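Ticket closed. Logging final result for Leucine-rich repeat-containing N-terminal plant-type domain-containing protein.
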Amino acid sequence: MVADQQHLTMFLENVSPDPSALGFNSSVPACEWPGIVCSQQQRISSITINGKGLKGTIPPGTLGMLSSLKVLDLVNNSLMGEIPSDIGNLTSLTFLLLAYNNLNGSIPSSIGSLGQLKLLDLSFNELVGEIPVSFNKLWSLQLLNLKENHLSGSLPLLQSSWDLEVLDVSSNLLTGGIPPQVLNFCVRLQVLNLSNNGLSGNVPFEITKLNLEFLDLSYNNLWGSLPPEIGNCTQLRLLNVQGNQITGLVPDEIGGLRNLECLGLGKNQLYGNLPQSLTMCTELYLLDASRNQFSGLIPSWLSKLQRLQFLVMHSNSFTGDIPIELFSSSSNLLHLDLGHNNLTGFIPPEIGNLVALRFLRLSRNQLTGSVPSTIGNLSQVTAIDLSGNLLTGSIPATIGELQNLLWLQMSENLLSGSIPGELSNCGSLLQKLQTLDLSHNNLSGGIPSSIVNLTALSLFNISYNPDLTGPLPEANQFVTFGPDIYVGDTKLCFYLNPTWENVSAWTGDNLPERCPTDPSSSGNSGFAAAPASAVMPKHLKLIVTLTVSVLGCLTALLLVLSGLLLNNLQFWVNCWWEKYRN
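Final structure:
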């Protein structure tokens, strides 16, 4: 016991400036320290010190000398340097958990001699080199997680790991094909995550013989078609093959995946129609078929998938009307993305039935008619993109009722009438509209004075609406916007608010000009020029500019993250990983 405590103390003194502050008091036996468990023989058998801010290297001759150690859990610290090779001396070790640190160098091949090892988690480090061939001897292994490192080379065969249930080597630099031997040896695999590598070749037929629940092959260089036998994986709940070069039709047999919850097919070269057999996947709540070559009508039978919450089908060649069946009052859709297709017809007024919807994108189609006023029923929506269509009529004032709206994009249409003042009501007191783009339309009349109440607005564009008239908004953050957002609006004018900078940029043949009179003397009800006493001090103006910029960046980041969330299924990957890790 004394020797064990000495070796542990040497490690702690190297990674913590004051081990006693963490409860490791040298005046009491190590078996009484927090996170330390000892055997009946008073030998240290388990070390669990996660999230304690340990910083430094693991010196050789410290932890590697604890010959009775069964559990080593140092997750979520700031450990650095190489994993010492004498870890391979811990022949009783069953759990080796070093994830979420800054460890670098190669994985020591000596780990392959840990025949009792069941869980090996080295994820989220800076490890390089190849996965040691000695891993083929880890015959007790049940979980291997090496994700988010810089490992290269090919996948190990793991020919002795018959009990392996979870294999995650995602987000590395692995190349070569998926060895069929791995799939033949690891017959108990339930989770297989090979995403975000450089793997190539076909999706191996042998993968369909496994009893997988989670299969993520996304963002590699895989080609060929999906094997029809994939329908035999009846326990699959997540199938993600996004970001590859997979071609051909989606096999009808995919309907055999009755437990499927998430299906990611995006960013491949799939074509034809989606198979109607998907209606048998009644548990499906995410379907991403984006960025392929699918054609034909948007299937009306999608409405039969009552659990469907995320439908992402942008950037294909779908044609025809948007099926009204998608807008059933019983729909659970949270995210609907049909942008960048060849859809025609109207936006059905029944869209107002999607009261749970958070994200709506119908951009870059050939939709006609007016924007239905029922869009104001989408009380939970945060982003609406209807840009790049042939929409006519006025902007519905009901949009102003959307208290959660942060992003409104209606540019490049044929919208007419005035900009409704109700838009200034969008968002709550704490979270107001941050992006408003109405450019390239046929809007007329003045800019509503209430627009300056959108104090969180960081992206504003009304350019190329040649019939807009009256003064520009010259208050709050609007004084920080450049002239490019008003290009082509030659009937607008400005009073040259003294807080503006780069006044010389406001000269050009296609820009607003100065208003002919000062509104303070003419009784003009438009936007007044700021009096000298109201001129914003430079430091306050900088704060406003930075605040607006930060808010805009956060909004953009949230939208990007939302897109990534849906495009690579990372949210569901993490959920599943946490399930199996725990």
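The first helix runs from residue 2 to 15. No further action required.
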